[in-house]
Design goal:
The complex is a heterodimer of chains A (372) and B (505).
Chain A (H helix, E strand, L loop, with lengths): L10 H7 L9 H9 L4 H8 L4 H7 L10 H28 L10 E3 L9 H16 L7 E3 L3 E5 L2 E5 L3 E6 L2 E7 L4 E2 L2 E2 L1 H24 L7 E10 L6 E7 L1 H13 L3 H6 L13 H9 L9 H4 L3 H10 L8 H6 L6 H9 L9 H20 L1
Chain B lengths: L2 H13 L3 E2 L13 E7 L7 E7 L6 E4 L6 H21 L4 E6 L6 E6 L5 E3 L2 H14 L13 H15 L8 E3 H6 L2 E2 L4 H4 L2 H8 L7 H8 L14 H16 L3 H34 L7 H21 L10 H25 L1 H10 L2 E10 L3 E3 L6 E3 L2 E6 L12 E2 L8 E9 L5 E8 L21 E5 L31 H4 L5
Parallel strand pairs in B: 2-7, 7-8
Antiparallel strand pairs in B: 1-9, 2-3, 3-4, 5-6, 10-13, 10-17, 11-12, 13-16, 14-15, 15-16
Helix pairs in contact in B: 2-4, 3-4, 7-8, 9-10, 12-13
The chains are: A alpha+beta (372), B alpha+beta (505).
The complex binds iron/sulfur cluster.
Protein name (chain A): Secreted protein
Organism (chain A): Streptomyces swartbergensis
């Protein structure tokens, strides 16, 4: 976990956050952001570096994202195993499973640069090394915990992939180490999909680093190396996974993210997201930021239970899931839909077709329920 | 999701109570199901931590693993589960009944058991657990340096059998309670929230004085309603972690046993609420009358069961690590066929399901206004005449008929009778008049009068649809050549030494 953000975010965003230290962007946060690009609330909270779990707690919602000590221990043990002895296991994997002719490791540890752990220092060193390696002047095999940057919603995010290697087919590959198992060559598809989205974030950041250095981005693979435990053991297993789809989707979503500063500028002067302030002040400011709740928020966003209650309050169709929302095109609340069903309100022209279908369905439900 | 279930969800969100999606139960629910509530250790691929199991709601058996990283303890867990589950399976292998397969000269009489095992787990992850535990145990050796008790691989083969059949909607040997309930009721929350057993049941069966929405929110608190597994609550894991450390560090056996009992109690406390919910779900589902095709589907399950039991007695080699390509392709074809047939059967058994097809125009309902019982038309042979009576149906106002003249349709009321649409006319009130020509289904009569009950009376209300549950599967090998699973002949696998010694850490 990076401990500091070197460039302070824009003033307004920093003022919103208050005196708390900013929470850095991570690849996970970026994929969550792009999972719901229409959500201005999350965009601003993340850009301002607000601790969302704490914020949710302050407004009365205990977040339900904890990590089990067992899971944590397993994750650390597996990471440790892959990196042990200068990435000996990773090198074995490259050799045995990916037929890369390598015998020994040339690992550069980028967790610190001469004792300095500051992100911007590590990032500069990463760029320097990449330029050297890419131009063939150096033979570092593995960059351990390099630091890359990416522009997200007008903010600079510092990102730390597990590793980068440039020896598979002569291209740079992002390496992700994950502790979910691949059983008989197959891992949990949801977990792999999430890893792939994060890998895409790193690859984009790597491209950016190449661009800035004037290096050809063709040297970067559109595949990443996923390392996870094999079957029910602790032994690392590796697979190259194609990222082209994820990269396209991510690039598109990033362009859709509005600039967080612009969004923040629309807030009233009194707004605050400082977690030490009162519940009322915080609630008022959160409310002023447009949310776009869907049930999938529950799986990735700390604010989800707050936003869900809000969506319930205004009877947003999306809270019942995509199925319901798609059946109510143009109808913005389930209350309105129920009014059409009861015949106490008349649908507008754009809603007529959907309302007619709903009414026909309701009539059939009434008739056929009694028929049994 | 259909528009009908959207209406049901909207209604539920207003009333605060789940709305029925069906008028009957579409799954067999055994009088003695085997309920399995498992927990696994967080972060591991499949490390059993505990389970509550059994067939008696009042007396679950508690299985725990006090040191989940200890290989011997894991296999002891598997042995204990095997002792219970295999005894239950054996209990289903008593009375048999004859049935016939094939037609004509290929006709053959066989025997199947009158019962089959039915395994119920809380949710979809529970099914994945059954598959993984099966994969972990079925390839083990019972001799040599890594020998395990002979019950362990047998357990694995059965668990794999359950998990393979669970992919087929027409099989009921392994079912997830959340899916079962969500197929019968619509709640006022989203499908992802419905995968949480406690909140789903809160909507279907809210406690006295509360409503579904409120009860469902309360049910989300893991301190009150622990997760239905196999994943545990991370906060609970902290307690557990502490206890397990104390267990490992205990200086003597007595002290260790005391901590061990505390671990058991804590784990039991995490599973008991789910255990009770499972049986509450069973009760609610039992209250629904059974759909007409359900016994047929269960008969098929009993057949798969009989054949697999026989296979295990005769050969007994386990399922391979991965399906071989041909077998996988055939399974997929079978699966598609099973889905189509299951959907059609559901609609035939349940007017509320059929209503979905009425809404899309693939079915229509009308009242018989006229019939021509004595109608003959020219047959295939020159000069011949065949008996083809017609009936005329009138649908109610504003009812869509999305089917064209010439379409072959059938009615659930007389599934043995084929009908063809001769005419569709829209009336002034928006309803339709449909003329149908009938063929067959007259108790083998070839001329009028139609035997009583075989020809619809005027005034009778009938539904006609293009769905046909008896339509033969296309270009698939006949069922006789696909014994114990839908996948084709067994492809036994010879486990290797590597399988036997595979780590489970
Ligand atoms: S939970 Fe709220 S803040 Fe988070 S992404 Fe969803 S709508 Fe945005």
């Amino acid at each position: 976990m990076p401990s500091q953000q070197s460039e302070p975010p824009d003033d307004r965003l920093a003022r919103l956050r208050g005196p708390q230290p900013p929470q850095p962007y991570t690849a996970r946060k970026i994929t969550a952001l792009t999972a719901n690009p229409a959500c201005a609330r999350r965009a601003v909270l993340d850009a301002a570096g607000v601790d969302k779990a704490l914020l949710a707690q302050q407004v009365g919602y205990e977040p339900r994202f904890g990590q089990s000590p067992f899971a944590l221990a397993r994750e650390q043990a597996f990471h440790g195993l892959v990196k042990w002895g200068g990435y000996a296991e990773l090198i074995r994997l490259l050799r045995e499973q990916l037929s890369v002719p390598v015998a020994e490791a040339h690992v550069t540890d980028l967790n610190e640069v001469g004792g300095n752990t500051a992100l911007h220092v590590r990032e500069r060193e990463t760029r320097r090394l990449i330029a050297h390696v890419a131009s063939g002047q150096d033979v570092r095999l593995i960059l351990d915990r390099p630091v890359l940057t990416l522009e997200v919603a007008g903010q600079t995010a510092y990102l730390e992939p597990d590793a980068i290697t440039h020896r598979i087919e002569g291209k740079f590959h992002v390496v992700l180490i994950r502790s979910f198992a691949a059983i008989d060559g197959q891992a949990n598809p949801t977990a792999v999909a999430e890893a792939a989205k994060q890998a895409a974030v790193y690859v984009l950041a790597l491209r950016r680093a190449f661009d800035t250095a004037g290096l050809p981005t063709e040297q970067i693979s559109h595949e990443f190396l996923l390392v996870c435990p094999k079957d029910f053991s602790n032994r690392p297993y590796g697979r190259l996974i194609d990222l082209r789809q994820e990269l396209d989707a991510l690039q598109f979503q990033l362009t859709r993210l509005r600039r967080a500063e612009d969004l923040a500028a629309q807030l009233p002067e009194t707004a605050t997201l400082d977690t030490t302030r009162s519940t009322d002040e915080l609630s008022a400011s959160i409310e002023a930021l447009d949310a776009s709740y869907t049930p999938s928020c529950l799986s990735f966003c700390e604010m989800a239970r707050y936003c869900r209650d809000e969506a319930d309050g205004c009877a947003s169709p999306a809270r019942l899931g995509n199925g319901v929302r798609n059946d109510l095109p143009g109808i913005d609340s389930t209350r309105t839909a129920l009014d059409y069903l009861d015949g106490v309100a008349a649908p507008g022209e754009a809603e007529t077709e959907a309302a007619d279908l709903l009414r026909a369905a309701a009539r059939l439900r009434r008739l056929r329920r009694g028929a049994a | 999701m259909s528009v009908l279930s959207t209406v049901a969800a909207l209604t539920a969100s207003r009333t605060g109570r789940a709305e029925p999606l069906t008028t009957v139960r579409h799954q067999h629910l055994d009088e003695k199901p085997f309920v399995l509530v498992p927990l696994t250790l967080a972060g591991e691929a499949c490390a059993p931590l505990a389970a509550l199991v059994g067939t008696d709601p009042e007396r679950p058996t508690l299985l725990t693993v006090r040191q989940p990283r200890n290989r011997a303890e894991r296999f002891r867990f598997a042995e204990r589960l095997a002792a219970l589950l295999l005894a239950y399976i054996d209990g289903c292998r008593t009375e048999t009944e004859p049935y016939t397969v094939g037609r004509g000269r290929e006709k053959e009489e066989r025997l199947r058991f009158q019962r089959a095992p039915q395994l119920l787990v809380p949710n979809g992850e529970g099914i994945a657990y059954v598959r993984l535990l099966g994969r972990l145990t079925r390839l083990r050796a019972t001799e040599g340096p890594y020998a395990v008790d002979s019950s362990v691989p047998t357990l694995g083969k059965w668990l794999t059998w359950f998990a393979e059949l669970a992919e087929f909607p027409n099989s009921g040997v392994l079912l997830a309670m959340t899916r079962l309930l969500a197929a019968h009721w619509a709640t006022g929350q989203s499908p992802s929230e419905d995968s949480h057993l406690a909140s789903l049941l809160a909507w279907i069966d809210p406690p006295e004085g509360s409503d579904g929405a409120r009860a469902a929110r309360e049910a989300e608190d893991p301190a009150v309603w622990p997760p239905a597994g196999p994943s545990t609550d991370p906060v609970f894991d902290r307690t557990l972690h502490e206890l397990m450390t104390r267990y490992d560090d205990a200086s003597d056996d007595r002290g260790r046993e005391a901590v061990g009992r505390q671990i058991d109690r804590e784990l039991s406390g995490q599973m008991l609420p789910t255990w009770r919910l499972m049986w509450r779900g069973v009760e609610l589902l039992r209250d629904l009358p059974e759909g007409a095709h359900v016994p047929d589907r269960w008969a098929l399950d009993r057949r798969w069961f009989s054949e697999y039991a026989e296979y295990l007695d005769a050969d007994g080699r386990p399922q391979a690590r991965r399906d071989q390509a041909v077998r996988a392709a055939r399974r997929l074809a079978r699966l598609e066929d099973a889905v189509t047939r299951y959907e059609a059967e559901r609609a035939y058994d349940d007017p509320l399901v059929m209503a979905e097809y009425e809404l899309t125009g693939e079915a229509f309902t009308g009242t018989v206004t006229a019939r021509d019982e004595d109608r003959f038309v020219p047959g295939d042979r020159p000069g011949s005449q065949v008996w083809r009576p017609t009936i005329t149906l009138r649908t109610s106002t504003d009812t869509r008929v999305g089917l064209a003249v010439g379409t072959e349709v059938k009615s659930p009321a007389r599934p043995g009778q084929a009908a063809r649409i001769l005419e569709v006319r829209q009336e002034d009130d928006g309803g339709h008049t449909v003329v149908l020509q009938l063929k067959g289904g007259f108790a083998n009569k070839r001329k009028p009068p139609a035997p009583a009950g075989t020809l619809a009376e005027t005034g009778e209300e009938l539904t006609y649809t293009t769905l046909n549950p008896t339509a033969m599967p296309s270009a698939l090998p006949d069922e006789e050549n696909t014994p114990w699973t839908h996948g084709g002949p067994p492809q036994p696998y010879e486990p290797t030494d590597e399988d036997a010694e595979e780590t489970w850490e």
